[in-house]
């Protein structure tokens, strides 16, 4: 279960870390012969991305959406020498100071050549003077077959300004196009080092960790000595800064689940409030204690939207104070024996340190 939790967090990190990034995930098609199409592809002079040359840094022209081009200006690229059947991720990354909306699609060669509106867009792009081309050489493989795709990137300016010049002629946008193959078709290769780090923590640290908050009282002394050791958690050895970064990437509902599953760890890092015995009794039973912040009856979606604007500590203060109501709405998780144990450990630590 600990290993599954580690892997799940890797995926959560991968999915949520999307600031100024758009991506498309695809599976490379079967290899095809290029004897009839190689001359046509060479004439297009498209920038090419391959598993060997996986990154292109360029700047592209953008335009505001129009009825004819609701997704902005078209740009075309070739993805070549792919491994048939392998999963890939293609990311477009750009700076926050250049607000742009991207639409990314991949097409097989036959689909583009057989679809009138796609071949028309491709032909118009090939004739444009504003395009920047890199690595355009078309060389056939030894057997004349390869797995390849067209990459269609549409870019629309996504801002409003009183500067008429920028509204009439939006400036070029600097972008990185990154092809990221999946390892075992499970997760992107770029996340490999992160996954290894987390798995090392999971295998190397968890088995040696002891329950937190054990108290030992020497027989020859009236003063109790509290012995605390790291909590039994796969990420207990992570630096606080890394824990904060992970928490910042989680949506409220995921953070709430993480907090209740590992309450001592998050409380020790200032991401969850200290607990008292009455509050734990309120959370773990159906005791009708008055909530500190009575909820206005509103849909769970609105409550979650409000939580997205709160600090993690304030989110947990709100949840702890209104657990019963939030649990009935499905925002807070139902209590399990493991969660109750974590909350009681957190109370024991607080009482011992107090």
UniProtKB/TrEMBL annotation:
Ordered alphabetically, the record's keywords are:
Signal
Keyword field contains Signal: yes
UniProt-recorded Gene Ontology molecular function terms: mannosyltransferase activity
Against InterPro entries, the record matches this protein to:
GPI_ManTrfase_II_coact_Pga1 (IPR019433)
Q: According to the lineage, what is the superkingdom?
A: Eukaryota
Signal peptide location: 1-19
GO (cellular component) term, any one: endoplasmic reticulum membrane
Gene Ontology terms: biological process: GPI anchor biosynthetic process
Name the UniProt record assigns to this protein = F-box domain-containing protein
């Amino acid at each position: 279960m600990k290993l599954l939790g580690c892997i799940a967090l890797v995926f959560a990190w991968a999915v949520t870390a999307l600031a100024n990034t758009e991506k498309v995930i695809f599976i490379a098609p079967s290899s095809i012969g290029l004897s009839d199409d190689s001359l046509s592809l060479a004439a297009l002079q498209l920038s090419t991305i391959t598993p060997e040359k996986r990154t292109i840094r360029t700047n592209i022209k953008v335009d505001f959406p129009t009825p004819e081009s609701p997704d902005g200006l078209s740009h075309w690229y070739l993805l070549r020498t792919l491994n048939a059947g392998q999963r890939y991720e293609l990311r477009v990354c750009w700076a926050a100071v250049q607000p742009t909306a991207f639409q990314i699609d991949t097409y097989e060669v036959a689909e583009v050549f057989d679809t009138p509106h796609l071949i028309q867009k491709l032909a118009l792009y090939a004739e444009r003077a504003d395009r920047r081309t890199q690595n355009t050489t078309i060389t056939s493989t030894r057997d004349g077959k390869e797995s390849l795709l067209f990459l269609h990137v549409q870019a629309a300016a996504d801002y409003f300004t009183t500067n008429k010049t920028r509204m009439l002629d939006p400036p070029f946008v600097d972008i990185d196009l990154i092809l990221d193959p999946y390892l075992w078709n499970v997760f992107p290769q770029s996340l490999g080092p992160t996954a290894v780090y987390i798995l090392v923590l999971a295998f190397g640290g968890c088995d040696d960790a002891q329950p937190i908050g054990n108290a030992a009282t020497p027989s020859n002394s009236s003063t109790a000595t509290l012995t605390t050791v790291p909590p039994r958690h796969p990420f207990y050895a992570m630096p606080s800064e890394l824990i904060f970064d992970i928490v910042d990437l989680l949506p409220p509902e995921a953070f709430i689940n993480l907090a209740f599953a590992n309450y001592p760890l998050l409380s020790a890092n200032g991401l969850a409030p200290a607990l008292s015995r009455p509050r734990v009794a309120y959370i773990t039973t159906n005791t009708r204690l008055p909530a500190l912040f009575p909820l206005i009856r509103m849909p769970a979606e609105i409550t979650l939207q409000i939580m997205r604007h709160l600090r993690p500590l304030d989110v947990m203060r709100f949840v702890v104070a209104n657990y019963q109501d939030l649990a009935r709405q499905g925002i807070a998780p139902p209590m399990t024996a493991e969660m109750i144990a974590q909350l009681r450990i957190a109370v024991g630590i607080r009482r011992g340190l107090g």
